[in-house]
Automatic annotation (TrEMBL):
It comes from Noccaea caerulescens (Alpine penny-cress). It is found in: Golgi apparatus membrane. Belongs to the V-ATPase proteolipid subunit family. V-ATPase is a heteromultimeric enzyme composed of a peripheral catalytic V1 complex attached to an integral membrane V0 proton pore complex. This is V-type proton ATPase subunit c''2. It is a multi-pass membrane protein. Keywords: Hydrogen ion transport, Ion transport, Membrane, Transmembrane, Transmembrane helix, Transport. Its main location: Golgi. The lineage of its organism: Eukaryota, Viridiplantae, Streptophyta, Embryophyta, Tracheophyta. InterPro entries: ATPase_proteolipid_c-like_dom, ATPase_proteolipid_csu, F/V-ATP_Csub_sf. It comes from the Eukaryota.
Length: 215
């Protein structure tokens, strides 16, 4: 005997079964597409985090050291360019300002020295870690700390170099016109130079968090 759930009764039984089959078959691609979109959304949301975690902490450390010295030198060079061009132009009409306003160039050069000092400090923070502990939370924390320290120092010195360069340029032009303004503008330049020291202090404190796991 045929089971009851397999028995087909009524004149429209075959057509209704066919319609249900068509609906089921037509709905399957839509279900697959929705499932694919859902999974791709989850994968996309987690792909960036997974990619960052898989990057070696030594890579972050090397990038931080490079940014520390590279961006600091960029800020120093930019500041010297701004100050030097104005100083040379103004010295044509007032040669007496040349020796005094070289202090602005020295302030700009100090910005690059800040970056070199911090880069050396960060370099001493690097330690050899076994491959089994390469991606431990402590290793990742050390790499991120060195990376963040380099970014802080580099961009703080970049802004400091631009600030000192622009003030030094104004100081040279003002001194050429009125020599009594030199000392007053020099005080402003000293405060602008202190911006780089703030970045150096915070960067050194941040680098103290770079502790690698013991063997």
């Amino acid at each position: 005997s045929i089971p009851q759930y397999l028995q087909i009764t009524g004149p429209d039984s075959f057509s209704s079964v066919r319609e249900r089959e068509k609906q089921i078959v037509s709905s399957r691609p839509l279900q697959r597409e929705r499932e694919r979109e859902r999974m791709s959304g989850i994968a996309y949301a987690s792909s960036w985090g997974a990619a960052l975690v898989r990057i070696s902490p030594y890579t972050f450390s090397a990038i931080g050291i490079a940014i520390s010295i590279g961006v600091s030198v960029l800020g120093a060079a930019w500041g010297i360019y701004i100050t030097g061009s104005s100083l040379i132009g103004a010295a044509i009409e007032a040669p007496r300002i040349t020796s005094k306003n070289l202090i602005s160039v020295i302030f700009c050069e100090a910005v690059a020295i800040y970056g070199v000092i911090v880069a050396i400090i960060l370099q001493t923070k690097l330690e050899s870690v076994p491959s089994s502990k390469m991606y431990d939370p402590e290793s990742l924390r050390a790499g991120y700390a060195i990376f963040a320290s380099g970014i802080i120092v580099g961009f703080a010195n970049l802004v400091c170099g631009l600030c000192v360069g622009i003030i030094g340029s104004s100081c040279a032009l003002s001194d050429a016109q009125n020599s009594t303004l030199f000392v007053k503008i020099l005080v402003i330049e000293i405060f602008g130079s202190a911006l780089g020291l703030f970045g150096v202090i915070v960067g050194i404190i941040m680098s103290a968090q770079a502790t690698w796991p013991t063997k």
